[in-house]
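Entry for the shared binder. Reason: the reviewer on the internal report wants the predicted structure included alongside the sequence.
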Amino acid sequence: MDRLKLVLHYFQSNSESISNGICIILALVSVKLYTSFDFNCPCIPQYNKLYSLGVMFVPPIIFFFLGILVNRHTGVMMEEWLRPIGKRAKNPAVVKYLFSAMIQRALLAPMVWILVTLLDGKIFICAFSMGVDPIYFSGMPNITGLDVVKLMAKVPCKEDMIFRNSTFRKAVSRYVRCYSQAIGWAILLFLILLGAVGRLIKPCFNHATFLQTRYWSNYLDVEQKLFDETCVLHARDFARKCVVQFFEGMREDTVLRLPLSPTPRGRTEKYEEEDEEEERLHGITKQEQVDQLLCKWYLCKPELDVTKMAFRPRVCITWEDHNGRTLYSDV
């Protein structure tokens, strides 16, 4: 249970971990989908190869676009690439890093699907059994009036009357399956070698540049999330102000006016909440101001220099009751 909590905490720590977890889940889904998929070869020369290649490559294309769709880096990369420059210059290295990370994660599930199909061999047998020369195998059925191509196209169909309990069909299937598995293991070995070479030569390049690129790519992701959270917080406080203002206006319009007499503690809590809401609203109290602010964020994002931030002095706010006693003070 503790290990499961650690794994969940890792995947929830940042967007990169979440993207890795989603891609791993997509890869597992691809394996499960293939094992539960009932592949039946048409055993017709015109359709064997078309159907087999479709099963081998169409699902990986779907998984590839799903990987791009669920990857958070996709939105961050496109926003950084297409945004107006404004006060902040664009960094092409960051866009390239995000694009590379997005493609690598999106290719995981498609590669798993292709490797599983090649190591299994059924799709490869259906696609390329017609290209095998039958003279190298003994026990070929002697069926008069049947073309050799049509005969070889029926090799994947072991239920066919021609190849029922036939050693010829088993030999051809084993031969094509060996080719399929050899290609699959070769691709897997190539990917492992490529990853190993990449890890070995990575320190040979400027590591400081890589750290800078990774830092600013993470910054863009965190900045977008903080902006969304701040917008939600501001919208909630803005909506609360509007709703309270509406009901206050309704109370003033009623004929029967009931005086409110909260306790001093209630007054203090109310003043604290109102002060926090005013602080979160930052003086933005109208729809036009909100629209202008959002437009300014898109057209001219702030430059990356926090030293220009102005420190506002705190205002002394004191609330007293009718006897002169201090109910709330903020210095």
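Summary line for the report: The longest strand covers residues 326-330.
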